[in-house]
Amino acid sequence: xxxxxxxxxxxxxxxxxxxxxxxxxxxxxxxxxxxxxxxxxxxxxxxxxxxxxxxxxxxxxxxxxxxxxxxxxxxxxxxxxxxxxxxxxxxxxxxxxxxxxxxxxxxxxxxxxxxxxxxxxxxxxxxxxxxxxxxxxxxxxxxxxxxxxxxxxxxxxxxxxxxxxxxxxxxxxxxxxxxxxxxxxxxxxxxxxxxxxxxxxxxxxxxxxxxxxxxxxxxxxxxxxxxxxxxxxxxxxxxxxxxxxxxxxxxx
Length: 252
Known about the structure:
Layout: H1 6-25, E1 29-31, E2 34-37, E3 41-43, E4 49-56, E5 62-72, E6 76-79, E7 83-86, E8 89-92, E9 97-104, E10 113-122, E11 138-145, E12 155-162, E13 165-171, E14 178-188, E15 194-201, E16 204-205, E17 210-216, H2 219-222, E18 227-234, E19 238-244
Parallel strand pairs: 3-11
Antiparallel strand pairs: 1-2, 2-4, 4-9, 5-6, 5-8, 5-10, 7-9, 10-11, 12-13, 13-17, 14-15, 14-16, 14-18, 18-19
């Protein structure tokens, strides 16, 4: 039996994360053997049904198993019967497409309700003794049941520098999600020259939740910084915050 070494396992992990990133932020995702369209599903107003198209882009039949879960803060998932779909398992021949029909059982509430439809590729059974590495994908399509009235809001709730470590807390006080595209931190000296900058990618921030992002500022740079500017870009808006830095914030 083929055993993966450390480098191979690392490659698979990175590849899966890259595929998941594309799944969330592109318009049509390539996931090894299949494409999914659309990559997000929205139920708003009186809309109670939706469809999802899977296409086999490989040279062989591909089989899938599907399931839905309720999606909470920090990627927590719990079983749910709020979302129904058909079929639960399917096989798609080379180059073909098939439709998955999806419906909701829950009415619109005061806050957006969030779920994921996981599409798991069923690995092909190969003869024992084979040495081919068989990668399978398990991708989650976000499903949003929108509230009757949407409130979009976001804020930098906290920015704290302690021992050269900057914590930026971003809060979503609205009733629908937003996607944090980037968080950029820059530090300037007395002459307003930028002497430090760092940018971090974000993720979904669901309604009513907050998330912390950490930045390490080298002590040599930190001791010369007088002001730190934080800029957050989301798919809905932008946020900014500026605060004054003292030397005591940079050392233990």
